[in-house]
Every structure is written in C-alpha cells, then in structure tokens.
Design a protein that fits this description.
heterodimer, A: mainly alpha, 9 helices, 0% strand, B: mainly alpha, 8 helices, elongated
C-alpha cells in the first residue's frame, strides 16, 4: 500500500537528484528500508507524506555527502567531455535531452536540487514545499528562481 | 550585467508565474524588450520549465518487486536475533588471557607466576585423570564384547590394525602379480 503510493515520488526524487538510474534504484530501496525500520517512530499528529519526504531528503543528502568525491569527479569528467564539443549527431547518440537536463540538475546545490524537483518535476505548490522544508514560502520562491536561473545559465554557457 | 538586469533576474520566475503586480510586470516586459540578454534568459527558463515536467518516470518493475519484498525481509531479520556479546566483555576476557600468559611465561611477579603454574598443573592433572577414566571405560567395553560375543568391537584399535594389515597384504599381492 505504502509502496504503491509513494514509490514513484521517492524514486523520482532520487533519480533526478543523482541523475544515475543504478544509484537512484539503490537509494530508493535504502530509503524504504529506513522507512520500515522507523515506522514505529512516526507520530500520528504529523503528515505521513512529509515524514517520508524528510527521510528521503536526508538520505539523498547523506548519500551525496558520503560519495561527494565520486560525484564531483564525474561532473569534472562530463565538463571535460563537453569542452570537446561533439557534433549534434554525436550528441543525439551519446545522450538524450532528458539525461542532459538531469545531469545539469545534479550539478546544483543539494537543497536547490530538491526544491526544484518538488516544484517543477513533481508539481507541488510553494506552500506544500515550504511545509516540507519548514521554511517560509518566500525562501522557497527565491530558491526556485535561483535554481532555474543557474540551469538557464548553464545551458547558455554551452551555447545550447 | 546592469543593476536592472540583476533585479530582473530575481523576479523572472515570479514574472513567468504571473505572481507580480501589474506595474512590476509591465516594468519587466519593457526591460525584456530592450535587453536581449535578459530575454534570452527568460526564454531559456520557459523552455527548461517545460522540459522539467517530462522528467517524471515510472518505477521500474524489478525495483517495485524489490521494494515489495522489504517488509518480509525485515520480518525475517527481526526473527533471527544475533547473540549479544558486548565489546567491553570481549576486551576484558582478552586482557585477562594476555596477563595470564605474561605471568605464566615470564617471572616478573614470582608469587603470581607460581600461582598460575599451580593452577595450570592442577588442570593438567584433572585432564590426565579423566583421560585415564575414559581409557578404562573403553577397555571394559572391549572386554565385554570379547566375553559375550567372542569378537573385537568394530571401532577397536586391534580391529582397525587387523583391517589395515589385510589391505596391505592385498596390495602386496597385487604388486607381485602385476
């Protein structure tokens, strides 16, 4: 029941946070194991989906911090490859537009990444996001704006 | 980048989502008409927002299966509880054994060394006694077998030796013939 309701949302957070399917699948599994282990700690006066999201967010950020070196090295490698600009045909073969956008998202700060995923990918309202992050709505709006600007600048720098 | 461009940057999302007052929106529109750089940025953001909505994916089938198995897996793990052996106890036992060895093999504290040796020798005596007792039981079993069945027990030493001799003889025979 719980898995049917929340697996898609958790999997999409992980997938767009790390931009790698294998990692996203492992992380999703780890998040659900954590959820099951901590079910008795859930207080009924709290929102269940917010509680799940908090676990998912903390786990994604922890995983990213633990493997920061790997992720930074991968990013640097991607940047080096993009310097030797491939032809449009090569681009099409190497990477789909969606994968490229995911990679760009994964280069943002973790908090910006998560807020952007919730707003623009999972279509949550500013109010809901503010509740989940326990920050004022204005902060969410300015972070979303910053994330979008950074993405746009990254694309424009590459001349796409 | 001019001061106005920076100001526009911070309001672009609100402008795209119609979250500004009429005056503010008009102000931004007129700036966008005059500044190609900001216009380009605004168009890029619009394009990105459209693309972002396509990033949702269904959960792969095998991952869903893995997730559905989690409750069973956790139940099984809970059922098999590992033996609790505290670390401090292991450290204490290790330290005691280490010190006993030290006192046994060296003569730093002669009274302790003597005490340890006497304990070890009494343990040795105990094992010799019990070992002898086991030997007696085994011998009496052999005697019972011999008295009542007039043959040696299958597992006895003599029986085994006889079997080994028979095998050796067969081997030697084969060797001569071959």
């Amino acid at each position: 029941m719980m898995i049917n309701s929340y697996s898609k949302s958790v999997y999409n957070i992980a997938l767009n946070f790390f931009a790698e399917r294998d990692i996203a699948q492992d992380v999703t599994q780890e998040i659900f194991i954590k959820i099951y282990h901590n079910l008795d700690k859930f207080r009924e006066d709290k929102n269940f989906s917010s509680w799940i999201f908090t676990i998912a967010r903390n786990h994604c950020i922890d995983y990213w911090r633990k493997n920061k070196k790997y992720f930074i090295n991968t990013q640097e490698l991607d940047e080096k490859i993009s310097v030797n600009k491939p032809t449009p045909e090569e681009n099409l073969i190497n990477e789909s537009e969606i994968d490229k956008l995911r990679k760009k998202i994964s280069q943002l700060d973790p908090e910006l990444r998560l807020i952007l995923i919730l707003r623009d990918i999972q279509d949550l309202s500013y109010q809901e996001i503010a509740k989940k992050f326990s920050v004022p709505e204005g902060t969410v709006k300015s972070r979303i704006n910053r994330a979008r600007l950074k993405l746009a600048q990254a694309y424009l720098r590459e001349g796409i | 980048m001019s001061k106005k461009c920076k100001e526009i940057d911070s309001l672009l999302s609100a402008y795209l989502e119609n979250d500004l007052s009429k005056e503010e929106a008009e102000d931004i529109s007129s700036h966008l008409n005059a500044c190609p750089e900001c216009l380009c940025k605004k168009e890029k953001i619009e394009e990105i927002i459209l693309k972002l909505s396509d990033l949702q994916e269904e959960v792969p089938f095998f991952l869903k299966n893995r997730l559905l198995n989690i409750p069973d897996m956790i139940e099984k793990r809970k059922a098999v509880k590992p033996l609790y052996f505290p670390k401090w106890l292991a450290a204490a036992v290790g330290t005691i054994i280490l010190f006993l060895n030290l006192f046994y093999f060296t003569n730093i504290f002669p009274p302790v060394n003597r005490e340890v040796h006497s304990v070890v020798s009494s343990i040795e005596k105990f094992f010799v006694k019990t070992g002898g007792w086991f030997e007696k039981v085994r011998e009496s079993k052999e005697l019972l077998f011999f008295t009542f069945f007039n043959k040696k027990s299958i597992g006895s030493k003599e029986n085994k030796a006889d079997q080994r001799n028979a095998i050796d003889k067969d081997f030697l025979k084969g060797g001569k013939n071959g």
